[in-house]
Design brief:
By secondary structure, the chain is of the alpha/beta class. Helix content is 47%, strand content 9%. The protein is built from 20 helices and eleven strands. Strands 1-7-6-5-4-2-3 form a seven-stranded mixed β-sheet, sandwiched between helices. The N terminus is likely disordered.
């Protein structure tokens, strides 16, 4: 090198390298690939057969079983230094891992919110592992597959074309990413260098008391603190209360805080409630706040035409988090974040490093890369199993599976309402049903019921707390679940409830108290029903008594009986105003919408001055047009 003056170039001292140390073995068997590919192929087919059989015969297995100590101890061994044969290790998997998993592929699994997976997703995951693609960046078709899914999701959720999307582990991570983008949008990108400690603004975010716990964790992770997330009360359907929210925002502004984000939920984890997304979007944008929707499992209800209208307003979100691994049945994990403004998304995560230099040609082309949209650099090919699932089954079948699980939830609701020993604890909005066995020491009795149900291996719900009461919580997410699993859940709960309350009583705990002696509205209706029925025995032709009986049956949730009774009233008096309207409501609740429309219309035609009939029929027509539009 020639510079102005002679420079002495300092060379590192040369180490003498023995050439023997550099002589690499030529043989392929020094790699980690098999020496005998044919033997591997045979073993691979066996492994594939075993796992396919597992899914095919899943109904014959217990959902879950307690792990024996001996099995647990097997997984406390030291790091294996020498090799084992693949056949042996696979056998270990079959004997000691496979039987002791959670069992969410089983149709009787109803705990938490777990998807059931599909064989198609499993095979795609195998291909992804074979390809061993790293989707952090670079010019490769796997990233185009991910972009394809982003584009499908843009259209599904009514987001614009410049919206960006990213696969992540799950909604916990997706919510975190959304909060970071919202934070940076509120504070400006300098916060990425200077940190929130340098900020004078104290940001506050808002969600309902039913918001998933990961939101508070995310606030903590991005330096804002979990207490800066204000949890606003919910209404009687578990939805964020708008007036309380507006009040909370104003109180914070008056106190010098800087509100920046509203987090709505489409399908709360406890009860499946869907916040009023349209009103929240209006409020958020009016207040100039970021509007995020946590649609972890509920967002994919968009695929089901009968449920999609309930998500109205989701298209106005600034960001949307959801999982394909829940209602989308894609094997774990496959979370997703969709962001309306791709530039803000990139601003929050893009970073330059010399070793990640982008080019316009070659492997380093194709910018922006997925690593510009989230915290991960190395990323697996989650998009492939999602792409396979959506292509092989099609959106219609996926939507039908989602819709079916919601119908099953309504069937479970119906069974609960028709079983006096059981009590429904929350309205059934989507596919989650919270209920309990009636007993004095109810929390303890129901906690024991759930543990025993899980240990039975027949059905596996989980628990939650609704209005301070422990609930048996059945989240029907799995596409394999059918009516027989719901019947088993009800049957086993009753059998266990009776046994457990008896054993508690024998052991000196409080005895169960079912309806008759309590002073709840239900007990009152039941006693009134008995009274009406005894009067009907001596006056079987009284129309009034029959109508009263129908109304009480309806209050008690015995909807099919109530329907029959209202029809009997109408057989005798076809224009009975209250019977027409009440029959309409029962028909809606039992899924007979067209017949409900006829009843409501008849009420309007026969009683044109009655405002209740007009409201009922008006609401019905509105919902029908929304359904058709959807
Ligand atoms: C409403 C809601 N948000 C967030 C999450 C967290 O999602 P993940 O487990 O995929 O991180 C869940 C999980 O059930 C959820 O139901």
């Amino acid at each position: 090198m020639k510079c102005g003056k002679e420079e002495r170039i300092v060379q590192p001292a040369r180490r003498e390298i023995k050439t023997a140390a550099l002589s690499f073995p030529e043989r392929e068997d020094q790699t980690l690939d098999p020496r005998d590919w044919e033997a591997l192929r045979t073993q691979a087919h066996r492994m594939l057969d075993d796992i396919l059989d597992y899914t095919k015969n899943i109904r014959e297995r217990p959902i879950w079983q307690p792990i024996p100590d001996k099995v647990r101890m097997r997984f406390r061994s030291t790091l294996p230094v020498g090799p084992s044969s693949l056949t042996e290790v696979h056998q270990e998997f079959m004997n000691y891992i496979l039987p002791f998993a959670v069992g969410n592929a089983h149709p009787g699994f109803m705990g938490w919110v777990h998807g059931g997976g599909t064989p198609v997703g499993m095979l795609a995951e195998m291909l992804a592992a074979g390809l061993n693609a790293n989707l952090g960046g670079r010019d490769q078709i796997p990233i185009e597959v991910e972009r394809q899914i982003t584009s499908w999701m843009q259209k599904l959720f009514g987001f614009p074309e410049n919206a960006t999307g990213l696969f992540v582990t799950g909604t916990s991570m997706a919510n975190f990413i959304a909060i970071v983008i919202a934070r940076d949008a509120a504070l400006g990108c300098d916060v990425r260098r200077q940190g929130v400690a340098a900020e004078s603004k104290r940001l506050t975010a808002y969600g309902s008391a039913a918001l998933h716990g990961c939101a508070g964790k995310a606030m903590d992770l991005c330096g804002l603190g979990s207490e800066a997330l204000r949890l606003v009360p919910t209404d009687n359907r578990g939805r964020l209360e708008l007036t309380a929210l507006a009040r909370a925002i104003k109180t914070d502004r008056d106190a010098g805080f800087a509100p920046f984000l509203i987090m709505a939920t489409a399908g709360t984890v406890d009860t499946g409630a869907i916040d009023d997304l349209t009103s929240l979007a209006t409020l958020a944008h009016g207040e100039k706040l970021w509007f995020h929707v946590d649609g972890a499992y509920g967002a994919l209800a968009m695929l089901a035409p009968d449920l999609a209208p309930r998500l109205r307003g989701i298209e106005r979100a600034d960001s949307l988090a959801f999982d394909f691994h829940k209602w989308g049945q894609v094997p774990y994990d496959a979370g997703f974040i969709l962001v309306r403004d791709g530039t803000l998304h990139r601003n929050a995560f893009a970073a330059s490093s010399t070793y990640l230099r982008r080019e316009t040609r070659g492997l380093a082309a194709g910018a922006p890369w997925p690593c510009d949209y989230g915290p991960d650099l190395s990323r697996g090919f989650r998009a492939l199993k999602t792409w396979f699932t959506l292509k092989v089954y099609g959106a219609e079948a996926m939507g039908a599976a989602i819709s079916r699980t919601s119908t099953l939830a309504r069937y479970l609701e119906h069974r609960i309402l028709n079983t006096p020993e059981l009590e429904l604890l929350a309205p059934v909005e989507l596919n989650i049903v919270c209920f309990r066995y009636r007993a004095d020491d109810s929390d303890r009795v129901n906690a024991s019921i759930v543990v025993e149900l899980q240990e039975s291996g027949i059905v596996a719900p989980s628990t939650t707390v609704v209005d301070g009461r422990l609930a048996i919580r059945a989240a029907i997410v799995n596409h394999r679940t059918g009516q027989s699993e719901i019947d088993k859940l009800v049957g086993c709960t009753l059998a266990l409830g009776r046994r457990i309350t008896k054993s508690f009583t024998a052991a000196g705990h409080a005895a169960p108290k079912i309806a008759a002696t309590d002073s709840s509205p239900r007990a009152k209706w039941e006693s009134e029903l008995r009274e009406v029925e005894s009067q009907m025995a001596s006056d079987p032709f009284s129309l009034d008594l029959r109508f009263q009986r129908a109304s009480l049956l309806s209050e008690l949730g015995r909807l099919v009986d109530a329907r029959t009774e209202y029809m009997k009233v109408l057989e005798r008096e076809p224009y009975h105003l209250a019977a027409l309207n009440k029959l309409g409501s029962v028909l809606i609740a039992t899924g007979h919408r067209t017949a409900a429309g006829i009843a409501y219309k008849e009420a309007v035609v026969r009683h044109p001055d009655d405002s209740t009939s007009r409201v009922n029929y008006g609401n019905y027509l509105l919902e029908e047009s929304e359904r058709q539009e959807a």
